[in-house]
Amino acid sequence: MEQRELKDILILQDEIKKKAKASSSKTYMNIYQFWPEEIMHKKVDYRLTNSSLVFAYKDEGGIYRMFFISYNVSDLEKELSCFPQGAILDYICKGENELEGVFLGGGFRQIASYTRKSINFLTEGKDFKRSHSEILDAYYDETVGEYATENDAEEITELLNNVFDKEVDHIPFVNEVREYAKKKWILVYRLAGKIRSLYIFQIQGRKFYSNFSYNSLPATVLYCLEKRAHMEVVNNYNVIMKYSWINTNNDRSLKRNILKYDGVYTYIYKKV
């Protein structure tokens, strides 16, 4: 296993893309995000062949996350098998997961899957829609809750880490939570000085992304937070899409979220 700084790995990624294009080959990858400038000098483990690049590093939560780009699935499977046990990789695709056999052959097993639900405001309107909304809407109060501040970041991060699974849920780190708070992307409700309900969302261009919901109080509290966020976002941002990722095993969340299934899935694998 070799190491390079992340900034150099991204150059290698571009080279694989060029080779794939030159050979008219389909590219497979799980690199979706833009990395912040502050981690560009981070050392990452990597393996490189003529047709594949696979790299990994430990994130702030201690999770060893893997990324790949390849236009040769047989080669990709071989390179994936070289990484250590415990490594985590995500793969987003629409419809059937055509790389399932590659991941299994590389020594991974699926540990979770998420389905995406979305709504197009241009065709469906901007009303707040949730299951049982006719019942809960009678209790809606736009004054319920408050926007989190940067000083709440540690408490929110601790709460998320206690409730969600850091291997599969991509829990934001404390500095990210501070940024969300600065942008007014977090609504919270306190009881006896403690955060007992919260709703975290993001604005990504013209998309409104529901990120995390947590509630230890009556359902009306979370309903108020989510509807308040929805109404303020659609009134203040020029968004056209709203979407959520929901664990396919979370029947309760799947039922209460009445956005439409759009056929996009995230599959999460762990090296065994």
Q: Quick gist of this model?
A:
This protein is α+β, with helices and mostly antiparallel strands.
Give the key terms.
34% strand; five-stranded antiparallel beta sheet; 272 residues; alpha+beta
- What fraction, in percent, of the residue positions are helical? 25-40%
User: Would you tell me the structural class of the helices and strands?
Assistant: alpha+beta
Q: Strand order across the biggest sheet?
A: 6-13-7-12-11-10-9-8
Overall pLDDT, averaged? 93
What does this structure look like?
- With 272 residues, this protein is of the alpha+beta class.
- The chain contains 9 helices and 13 strands.
- The chain has helices spanning 6-22, 73-80, 100-105, 121-124, 133-136, 153-163, 174-182, 219-236, 251-256, and strands at 2-5, 28-29, 43-48, 52-58, 64-70, 88-94, 108-120, 146-147, 186-191, 194-204, 207-215, 241-247, 260-271.
- An 8-stranded mixed sheet has the order 6-13-7-12-11-10-9-8, with helices on both faces. The protein has a 5-stranded antiparallel sheet with strand order 1-3-4-5-2, sandwiched between helices.
- Strand 11, helix 8 and strand 12 (241-247) form a beta-alpha-beta unit.
- Helix 6 crosses helix 7 (174-182).
- The longest helix has 18 residues, at 219-236.
- The mean pLDDT is 93.
